[in-house]
Amino acid sequence: MDTSHSHRLDQAPIDLVRTAFAAFNSGDLDACTQLLTEDFAINIAGMPFQMRGRDAWRQNAMVMRTAFPDFHTRIDDIFASGKHIAVRLTMQGTHRGDFRGIPATGRRVEYASIELYRVADGYLAEEWIASDMETLMRQLSGFPSPATPDA
């Protein structure tokens, strides 16, 4: 079985996601939105409804950029199967603005996110985000992480 053709097909969506995260890390939200379909679908764990469109994506990105101006994503793992891409990320930033009603604390945060993307016609068409919000909120509140049980 020739897997090189399959690998080449999977590489384009991976490159698209890498390009999007590089633009986000540099703060270029215009470049990010140009990689999205007009009706980009946003699915966030815990959110009771789906959001749609480039403007909705930009609003969500601005929430993070306002609260954490140095917000940075690091791709830890990425793979694709056809039009779907899975990404394991580490998110980092310094809390310098209001986030979910919590005023700036100056605390440095780091948390994980598992994200899935769907590509259509060379654009990102949909995302599913499952971020570790409990860890993020615990860091913002200053509460210590729960003790790890003895093995």
Give the SSE map:
Elements: H1 3-25, H2 29-33, E1 36-44, E2 51-52, H3 54-67, E3 72-81, E4 84-94, E5 108-120, E6 123-131, H4 133-141
Parallel strand pairs: 1-6
Antiparallel strand pairs: 1-2, 3-4, 4-5, 5-6
Describe this structure in words.
By secondary structure, the chain is α+β, with helices and mostly antiparallel strands. The chain has helices at 3-25, 29-33, 54-67, 133-141; strands spanning 36-44, 51-52, 72-81, 84-94, 108-120, 123-131. Helices cover 34% and strands 36% of the residues. The chain has a six-stranded mixed sheet. The longest helix is centred in the first third of the chain and has 23 residues, at 3-25.
Which band does the percent of strand residues land in? 35-45%
| Rg result | 17 Å
Poorly predicted segments: none
Number of strands: 6
Structural class: alpha+beta
Count of individual helical segments: 4
Shape: globular
Top keywords for this entry?
151 residues, alpha+beta
Quick summary:
This protein has 151 residues and is of the alpha+beta class. It has helices at 3-25, 29-33, 54-67, 133-141; strands spanning 36-44, 51-52, 72-81, 84-94, 108-120, 123-131. It is globular.
